[in-house]
Amino acid sequence: MGNLAQPLGLDPPFWLALGRSVLVGACVAGLSLAAGWPLGVRAGLTDFPGRRLLLALLALPLLLPSFLVAIGLSMLWRGSGGVAPVVWAFAGLGIPLVACAAFAATLALTRSQADAARLAGGERHLLRLARRSAFPLAGLAATLAGVLTLADPGPGQILGWPGAAGELLVSFAAHYDSALATRQALALTAVAALFAWPLAWRLAPEVAVGLFARDVARPAMKASRVTAGWLFLAGGFVTVLPLVGLLKPLLAHAWPVARAWREVSRTAADTLIYAALAAGFAVGLAFLLAWAAGRSASRRRWLVAGALALFALPPALPALWLIPWSARVTVGLALALRGLPLAILLALRAVGSMPPSWADAARVHRVSRPTFFARVALPWCARWAWPAAAIAALLATAEVGTVLLLHPPGHGSLPLAVFTIMANAPEALVAMLCLFYVLLAAALAVAAQRFFSWR
């Protein structure tokens, strides 16, 4: 250990914390794959009343900061800490991520594939085919879920199992040693790259091909109460139980609504500015890259591989490099990196699903490229740009470490305010602030879904 630590200038406590982080990441990846993969496949193959509601309940933690889930579990779980509650907190994000990936892969099955599988062996054979086709994307999502735990300091710090990301924040915020923090961030990046980048490159062609438009099948199996029951249990595990933990101190004390609202009002403007800047940067760059890639298979593969690799990049690394230019615009630019990978995938989907005949017709009728872009391509891409912007904004809002490292004095976000006061503020106030954030995120997600479906 000492021989390894000496050349890199990192002390043994960091390597121990990194070992704890790797253990948590491996457990989260395995649990997320075991639970999310079959759940997403079954949800994609069957239709039943309340499916959208249960899927929304399961996916809600993806819109929340991980430390918020950890706060709820800490109020629910009064134990002495350890690896189990930390894995639970991170699995609350990993299981929905894998389930959504498997769900999307299952919905991408073509109508001819579904019909051929049903004719060959009935619904059981169709289920096996769907599981097999969804496994690569589900495995990639599980790996990314495990890698993302390496760079997230919140749950480990709150639940008594601090990891390498927590050591990084201590190096910068407590010891003011940016050089040490940068070396630690590079070590985290190396570990993340070791696990995620080869898999991202291996699966990039499949993901790139899947982003083209295809004649997909509708849910092909009969409605299943078993699937609905498993979705309900998974939603309760990842969403309901942490919310119950947040309600516990509020049931024992008076609800500090006025004080919590003052904190929300104080940070609302900066939170919205950071979210808007991140969404604008991410969506603008994503569509520029998608148009540059066009329908070229090799360029799309490189772009997808880069997006997946960027998704696994610890956000503290670019934030540490941008510290000399600390400003709200800098915060928005750094936060855009969190939403950029998903924005790229949606932009590639938008460009890949636009009928090629439109461009051919424009050439036949001698429509200029600027006119075609303004009147045809831009309105088509706008249908995908709005959901990409909403996702980028929510992911940016949930990111705490970047804002902590880069925000100008007095211009923190709401999640950062919760993260910094949770150790000294009353539990009821912390719980109230967390519930405010949950309600705001859920309301924004519902409003965005209704707006997109209306359009």
Written description of the protein model:
This protein is mainly alpha-helical and 455 residues long. The chain folds into two domains: 1-253, MetI-like fold; 254-455, Orthogonal Bundle (MetI-like fold), CATH 1.10.3720.10. Helices cover 81% and strands 0% of the residues. The chain has helices at 2-8, 12-45, 51-59, 66-76, 83-107, 111-150, 154-158, 164-174, 178-210, 225-252, 257-293, 297-311, 316-321, 328-353, 356-364, 369-398, 401-406, 414-421, 427-454. The radius of gyration is 22 Å and the shape is globular.
- Average pLDDT over all residues: 83
Strand residues, percent: under 5%
- Architecture per CATH nomenclature, i.e. the level-2 architecture of the largest domain: Orthogonal Bundle
Number of DSSP E strands: 0
Provide the succession of SSEs: HHHHHHHHHHHHHHHHHHH
CATH structural class of the largest domain: Mainly Alpha
Compact summary:
By secondary structure, this protein is mainly alpha-helical. It is built from 19 helices and no strands.
Question: What are the main properties of this structure?
Answer:
MetI-like fold, mainly alpha, disordered N terminus, 455 residues
Strand-helix topology:
Layout (H helix, E strand, L loop, with lengths): L1 H7 L3 H34 L5 H9 L6 H11 L6 H25 L3 H40 L3 H5 L5 H11 L3 H33 L14 H28 L4 H37 L3 H15 L4 H6 L6 H26 L2 H9 L4 H30 L2 H6 L7 H8 L5 H28 L1
